[in-house]
């Protein structure tokens, strides 16, 4: 097994089949989906999709828990490369070849599909500012673009990093990443993406960011609580900075709680 596609799904009955159909099967050997306690027909749909290994959490355990289950399944499958994307249509399966590129050519251990980088690389400047142009003329809601830019600036200062975003869930990991990052000991919440990226950074793994598209599907069955998420990002970043840069690779027990 070389490449496996991983999809966390929650109330994704209206979008999941289309996402699976668009995954390039010439590059992906297997698709693993975990239903994180959906209240609709997501799991029944998963079981009918060809070439899919369907996993299930009997009750909703959280975004991070779903990803942890998927990464564990990827390791068990023997996959050399794992690409994770969301079931709600926010990531374009057609961009999987772009995502796999740096890992396949050996220049990166982990690849992050950065929507912000994608917006900044294509935006026309407004009032002399590319960032302002990206905020105003983006397919992503303006408040989300502005929030991503502000939060990432703070996080880079607190974590001593230089990433364009910690919050993108479209990622490729080599097997080495999954054997070294303690993915099963990270938070169960939406902060999982940040903790995983920070852990990879602290371990000295090579992380590459590639620009990807931004898309929001009105049919999506789940959404991030924006204000609460933003406040949690700020709280965790400041705690990390003020707490003497405690390694995320050695989490305290409270980090594993929802």
The H/E string reads: EHEHEHEHEHHHEHHEH
Strand order of the largest sheet: 3-2-1-4-6-5-7
Domain count: the total is 1
Low-confidence parts: 251-258
Radius of gyration: 17 Å
Number of strands: 7
- How far the N terminus sits from the C terminus, by CA atoms, comes to 33 Å
CATH C-level name? Alpha Beta
**Count of helical regions:** 10
Q: What sort of overall outline do the alpha carbons produce when their principal axes are compared?
A: globular
Query: In this structure, how is the largest beta sheet organized?
Result: 7 strands, mixed
Structural class: alpha/beta
- Assigned CATH architecture: Alpha-Beta Complex
Oligomer: single chain
Secondary-structure map with pairings?
Blueprint: E1 3-9, H1 16-22, E2 30-36, H2 42-48, E3 52-57, H3 63-77, E4 81-84, H4 96-104, E5 110-114, H5 115-122, H6 130-136, H7 142-159, E6 171-174, H8 175-180, H9 192-202, E7 207-211, H10 226-242
Parallel strand pairs: 1-2, 1-4, 2-3, 5-7
Antiparallel strand pairs: 4-6, 5-6
Helix pairs in contact: 5-6, 6-7, 7-10
Structural descriptors:
15% strand; Spore Coat Polysaccharide Biosynthesis Protein SpsA, Chain A; 10 helices; alpha/beta; globular
